[in-house]
Design goal:
alpha+beta; 2 helices; Alpha-Beta Plaits
Length: 72
């Protein structure tokens, strides 16, 4: 499953760091964060998708404290 999320990231460099952190999360097939559109795309298996998204968000917050993402 692929899903886009609205997010807030301060700069292109921060977006790149957040993207790399998300890609390292177990279960994430692919992830991208676009600074210009303020969108994050996460691809993961349908089973357990919500848990993977939550883990990816926590990984992103770990590398960039001011990163936010609308998960709901």
């Amino acid at each position: 499953m692929k899903k886009k999320f609205n997010c807030e990231v301060d700069c292109a460099n921060c977006a790149a760091k957040v993207e790399e952190a998300m890609k390292k999360v177990p279960g994430v097939i692919n992830a991208s964060v676009n600074f210009l559109t303020q969108k994050a795309l996460i691809e993961a298996a349908d089973e357990g998708f919500d848990a993977v998204v939550q883990a990816a968000y926590q990984a992103a917050k770990h590398v960039e404290d001011e990163f936010t993402m609308e998960i709901a």
